[in-house]
Amino acid sequence: MNHPTADGLRVERRDAGLWLVLDRPQRRNALTLDLVGALIEALYEPPDDVRAVVLTGTGSAFCSGGDRADLVAIAAQGPIAVTDVVYARFQGLVRAIAAAEVPVIAAVNGPALGAGFDLSLACDLRVAAEEATFESAWVKLGLVPGLGGAHMLTRIAGATRAAELVLLGRPLTAREALEWGLVNAVVPADDLAGHVAAMVATLASRSRPALARSKAALRRARDAGLAEEFATLGAVQSSLAAGLDLARWGKVKPD
How far apart are CA 94 and CA 126, in angstroms? Predict the structure, then answer.
């Protein structure tokens, strides 16, 4: 199965893996509402013979965050629209990853910024190319990590390191991310697809029901309290967006 690009997403079947490829290289794979919706749909009930879903990007970036033009247009509609979009769409993507019965692997081929960083954290396993970088760029834009990045970072890396990333917004290299426990492996870019394919092959040798229940056990531990955090984040993000100069914000880029 190999579907053509739709809404910025390319869906490919590679052996026991379902590869979801963010395919907006001209926008560094920034997330639009349509792309997020396509991802959620693809994550819903993978075929029975799939043992893993792989999320990766086309071109030089994994995901540069939310598409600024899309988000400015939403913010211009007012705080209720922002709350609805953050909760239903963007946080809905994180919930879809958690709910998928098979492991979701982030193959981070390049920079993962803002929502892109949160998206990688939402996955069950993460492998990074040596050129990959990770940055919680939200605070530089006057926003809070809307996809639960602060919560997930605290659970994965600990409160002290999470505070450094979220409050200072400093980027991490792939090697630093490995040292901090944010990724499972760092490999040369040319080996990324092969390394992840080998992980999929290992998962293919496991029972799908056992994988589903083991993933659920892990998720209960790492996602405890996330639903409550999501309920708060939508309103918080809308209040912050309401105070932004949208014309200027649409042009701001993280350091």
Answer: 15
Cβ within 8 Å of residue 116, ≥6 positions away: 29, 31, 61, 62, 63, 64, 65
Q: Which of 128, 20, 119 is nearest to 66 (CA)?
A: 119
Dump strand ranges (E) for the chain: 2-6, 9-14, 17-22, 52-57, 104-108, 112-113, 125-129, 133-135, 172-173, 185-187
Domains of the chain, first to last: 2-249 (3.90.226.10)
Q: Residues 108, 237, 182, CA angle at the centre, nearest 5°?
A: 25
Confidence (pTM): 0.91
Asked if 164 contacts 107 with a C-beta cutoff of 8 angstroms, the reply is no
pLDDT at 255: 47
Cα gap 196→71, rounded to integer Å:
32
3-state DSSP of 165-179: HHHHCCCEEHHHHHH
Whether 172 and 180 have beta carbons less than 8 Å apart is answered as yes
Q: Percentages helix, strand, coil for the chain, rounded to the nearest 5?
A: 50, 20, 30
Q: How many CB atoms lie within 10 A of CB 69?
A: 12
The full 3-state SS of 100-132, as one line of letters, equals CCCCEEEEECCCEECHHHHHHHHCCEEEEECCC
CB 127 within 8 A of CB 177: no
CA-based nearest residue to 72, from 85, 57, 89, 56: 85
pLDDT in tens, 211-245: 999 999 999 999 999 999 988 887 787 778 777 65
Match 């999929």 to its residue by tokens: 200
